[in-house]
Amino acid sequence: MKNRTLAIIKPDGVRDQVVGAIIDKIQKNGFHILAMKLSKLTKESAGEFYAVHKGRPFYDELVTFMSSGACVPIVLEKENAVAEFRNLIGATDPAEAAENTIRKLFAKSKGENVIHGSDSDEMQK
Ligand code: CMP
Hints:
CATH topology: Alpha-Beta Plaits
Radius of gyration: 13 Å
Number of strands: 4
Oligomer: single chain
Distance between the termini: 21 Å
Bound molecules: adenosine-3',5'-cyclic-monophosphate
Shape: globular
Helix content: 25-40%
Strand content: 15-25%
Number of helices: 6
CATH architecture: 2-Layer Sandwich
Largest sheet: 4 strands, antiparallel
Structural class: alpha+beta
Protein backbone atom coordinates (compact mmCIF):
# COMPACT_ATOMS: atom_id res chain seq x y z
CA MET A 1 0.00 0.00 0.00
CA LYS A 2 1.19 3.49 -0.81
CA ASN A 3 1.76 5.67 2.22
CA ARG A 4 3.54 8.84 3.23
CA THR A 5 6.59 9.81 5.18
CA LEU A 6 8.13 13.05 6.32
CA ALA A 7 11.71 13.86 5.29
CA ILE A 8 13.64 16.86 6.54
CA ILE A 9 16.84 17.97 4.84
CA LYS A 10 18.65 19.41 7.86
CA PRO A 11 20.48 22.77 8.08
CA ASP A 12 23.85 21.18 7.20
CA GLY A 13 22.38 19.98 3.88
CA VAL A 14 21.12 23.46 3.03
CA ARG A 15 24.45 25.06 4.07
CA ASP A 16 26.49 22.52 2.08
CA GLN A 17 24.42 23.10 -1.08
CA VAL A 18 23.40 19.45 -1.44
CA VAL A 19 19.60 19.94 -1.41
CA GLY A 20 19.33 19.33 -5.17
CA ALA A 21 21.53 16.25 -5.06
CA ILE A 22 19.52 14.77 -2.18
CA ILE A 23 16.17 15.43 -3.88
CA ASP A 24 17.51 13.85 -7.07
CA LYS A 25 18.47 10.73 -5.11
CA ILE A 26 15.04 10.61 -3.41
CA GLN A 27 13.16 10.89 -6.72
CA LYS A 28 15.39 8.35 -8.48
CA ASN A 29 14.42 5.92 -5.71
CA GLY A 30 10.75 6.18 -6.66
CA PHE A 31 9.45 8.64 -4.04
CA HIS A 32 6.91 11.25 -5.14
CA ILE A 33 7.05 14.73 -3.63
CA LEU A 34 3.63 15.82 -2.32
CA ALA A 35 4.76 18.97 -0.48
CA MET A 36 8.03 20.76 0.16
CA LYS A 37 9.22 24.10 1.52
CA LEU A 38 12.23 25.98 2.83
CA SER A 39 11.63 26.65 6.49
CA LYS A 40 13.59 27.72 9.58
CA LEU A 41 12.57 26.01 12.81
CA THR A 42 12.56 28.02 16.03
CA LYS A 43 14.30 26.47 19.03
CA GLU A 44 10.85 25.89 20.48
CA SER A 45 9.48 24.06 17.42
CA ALA A 46 12.68 21.98 17.05
CA GLY A 47 12.38 21.09 20.74
CA GLU A 48 8.78 19.99 20.28
CA PHE A 49 9.57 18.00 17.15
CA TYR A 50 12.32 16.06 18.97
CA ALA A 51 10.49 15.91 22.34
CA VAL A 52 10.87 12.12 22.32
CA HIS A 53 14.64 12.66 22.86
CA LYS A 54 14.25 15.15 25.72
CA GLY A 55 16.61 14.24 28.56
CA ARG A 56 19.12 12.48 26.31
CA PRO A 57 22.67 13.88 26.33
CA PHE A 58 22.51 15.10 22.73
CA TYR A 59 19.09 16.81 23.00
CA ASP A 60 20.25 20.43 23.51
CA GLU A 61 22.83 20.11 20.76
CA LEU A 62 20.21 18.61 18.43
CA VAL A 63 17.70 21.40 19.07
CA THR A 64 20.37 24.11 18.62
CA PHE A 65 21.56 22.51 15.37
CA MET A 66 18.05 22.01 13.94
CA SER A 67 17.22 25.67 14.56
CA SER A 68 20.59 26.98 13.31
CA GLY A 69 19.47 27.61 9.72
CA ALA A 70 16.88 26.80 7.10
CA CYS A 71 15.85 23.21 6.50
CA VAL A 72 13.68 21.56 3.83
CA PRO A 73 10.73 19.49 5.08
CA ILE A 74 9.31 17.23 2.37
CA VAL A 75 6.22 15.01 2.37
CA LEU A 76 6.93 11.90 0.29
CA GLU A 77 4.76 9.09 -1.04
CA LYS A 78 5.70 5.57 -2.07
CA GLU A 79 4.77 1.96 -1.37
CA ASN A 80 5.89 1.25 2.21
CA ALA A 81 7.31 4.80 2.36
CA VAL A 82 8.41 4.96 6.02
CA ALA A 83 10.56 1.83 5.97
CA GLU A 84 11.79 2.40 2.40
CA PHE A 85 12.90 5.92 3.26
CA ARG A 86 14.70 4.80 6.44
CA ASN A 87 16.61 2.34 4.24
CA LEU A 88 17.49 5.07 1.76
CA ILE A 89 18.83 7.48 4.41
CA GLY A 90 20.96 4.89 6.24
CA ALA A 91 22.14 4.63 9.84
CA THR A 92 22.11 7.65 12.18
CA ASP A 93 25.90 7.68 12.25
CA PRO A 94 27.18 8.15 8.67
CA ALA A 95 30.29 6.12 9.55
CA GLU A 96 27.97 3.15 10.04
CA ALA A 97 25.63 3.87 7.12
CA ALA A 98 25.49 1.46 4.17
CA GLU A 99 27.10 2.41 0.86
CA ASN A 100 25.00 4.63 -1.41
CA THR A 101 22.66 5.80 1.37
CA ILE A 102 22.03 9.54 1.72
CA ARG A 103 23.87 9.80 5.04
CA LYS A 104 26.84 7.81 3.72
CA LEU A 105 27.05 10.09 0.70
CA PHE A 106 26.36 13.50 2.28
CA ALA A 107 26.53 13.48 6.11
CA LYS A 108 29.53 14.28 8.27
CA SER A 109 28.64 13.16 11.78
CA LYS A 110 26.02 11.56 14.00
CA GLY A 111 24.85 14.98 15.18
CA GLU A 112 24.89 16.68 11.77
CA ASN A 113 23.58 13.87 9.64
CA VAL A 114 21.92 15.82 6.80
CA ILE A 115 18.47 14.21 6.77
CA HIS A 116 15.66 13.02 8.98
CA GLY A 117 13.05 10.40 8.13
CA SER A 118 9.94 9.50 10.12
CA ASP A 119 10.32 6.30 12.09
CA SER A 120 6.59 5.57 12.19
CA ASP A 121 3.35 6.26 10.35
CA GLU A 122 2.44 8.84 12.97
CA MET A 123 4.43 11.38 10.89
CA GLN A 124 5.64 13.09 14.04
CA LYS A 125 9.19 11.87 14.48
P1 CMP B 1 17.26 11.85 13.46
O1 CMP B 1 17.00 10.64 12.66
O2 CMP B 1 16.84 13.16 12.95
O3 CMP B 1 16.62 11.65 14.90
C1 CMP B 1 17.20 12.06 16.09
C2 CMP B 1 18.52 12.73 15.89
O4 CMP B 1 19.31 12.86 17.06
C3 CMP B 1 19.36 11.90 14.97
O5 CMP B 1 18.86 11.93 13.68
C4 CMP B 1 20.73 12.52 15.18
O6 CMP B 1 20.92 13.67 14.39
C5 CMP B 1 20.64 12.93 16.63
N1 CMP B 1 21.43 12.01 17.44
C6 CMP B 1 21.14 10.74 17.73
N2 CMP B 1 22.11 10.20 18.49
C7 CMP B 1 23.02 11.17 18.68
C8 CMP B 1 24.24 11.23 19.39
N3 CMP B 1 24.70 10.18 20.06
N4 CMP B 1 24.92 12.39 19.35
C9 CMP B 1 24.42 13.45 18.69
N5 CMP B 1 23.25 13.45 18.01
C10 CMP B 1 22.58 12.32 17.99
